[in-house]
Amino acid sequence: ARRLRDLVIDPAKGAGDHGVTVSFDRIDPEHEGEVETVRARYVVGCDGARSTVRRAIGRELHGDSANHAWGVMDVLAVTDFPDIRFKSLIQSAHDGSLLVIPREGGYLVRLYVELAKLEVGERVAGRNITVEEVIAKAQRILAPYTLQVKEVAWWSVYEIGQRITDKFDDVPAAEVATRLPRVFIAGDACHTHSPKAGQGMNVS
Question: What pTM, to 2 d.p., does this model score?
């Protein structure tokens, strides 16, 4: 296992040269304390929302300063909502959003329920949200249609933040016309958002 220690870009190197030098700390027990160096033409950082590569090239995520809490549950539901067996997105006037995804087999339906905006630094685990709260919120969003949950096969709560970085590579704005990028960031390293409905497919 390795942890990124340093990333150095030599903009004077040509396109065919190894212009990026990356140093790693070895953290596996057999090699703990050792430093490993790799030279490459290009580097792609896919190291998540707390990306070390993103910080190394001076990029920042911009967007909501707080995360949003969502609930998800697979339920056996009785409802007069006419499209419960179709993929649907419901946006209520005051209570948030609800995403309906029918499960295989034709009996259960998965509901993604927008719960609340979290405070800066707050984690959803600290709210101790119950499945009853998730159901109640789904009922408010779906009103005036009714929703009775007869059985909950599975449920969970999670948090997402809607953020995107200012650029996806290492080239400063003033140098765009004079050199090509060497380091790129992808995935959560450059954008974080809800994974539902393929929202990130055309972002990175």
Answer: 0.64
